[in-house]
Amino acid sequence: MITPFDYFEHRRACKQKQLQRSTHIANLPPEYHAPVSSSDRHILNKSVEELVQDVDKEVIKPIDILRSYGKLAIRAHAKTNCLTEVMINPGAEKWMENINLKGPLAGIPVSLKDTITVGGFDTSVAYSRYTGKPYPRDGTMVRILKDAGAIPYVKTNCPITLLSFESANDLWGRTTNPHNINYSPGGSTGGESALLAYGGGRIGVGSDVAGSVRVPAHFAGIYALRCSTGRWPKIGTNTSMAGQEGVPSIFSPMTRTLPDLVYFTKSIVGMKPWEYDHTVHPIPWRAEVYDATKEQKKLRIGVMETD
Asked: pTM score, two decimals?
């Protein structure tokens, strides 16, 4: 039985987190509230691989990439209510001081599903009981991203329990589809699909058990890959289904374009994630297999009718 006191505590936690989010956005440096400039559009139109090359050549500064996508992320949130934790400042701008400028994702902002743990921030998974309890350290996925040179900058909305093809909850509210706000962006990684489809990010990380990145990608018109179990990490997350190993959840990439999906997936595998997470199989990126598959005119698809 839920007592009135439990309800009032729940409502208070919801109000506090939404106020914290709006305060973080309002207090961002002026650059994030400025109009989108021609230099921003120059950055926004480049692929992840091109941006990494420009950072390596010192043609573009990581702070400029962060601010360009930060602007769009704030605008995406204003339209779709897609963000939960805004980690730009403090957070991303400070982490940038020590990034790996030679990494495969050097200077690239990466958005994260709210379930992914980041040191110093809550991982509420839309539960009010998990608010006000920031994690003391980064989870596995975030450590890999930072070691690769990437910059986590926002976390995105999901449904409570993670078992829904929409992204709505009391704690953060309802996320809508940027193409039509009367529609859902999918779930359970719907905040990611809304953010990426709007243009507020180029690459993000979700998790998938039974469609949690695939359905949002379909609903919002972006790209996602549900990685095979053991290919990408799975440790370093908060979940509503602890111990559920029948169909294991796994971190999976979400991107705006297909070339970015390939590059992002390859970059994480190239970081040897099995050295961070014992559940990952020690299999490197096999370029010859990828190239041979691309050249095939017909693909064979298997359908398992029963298990």
From this structure: 0.95
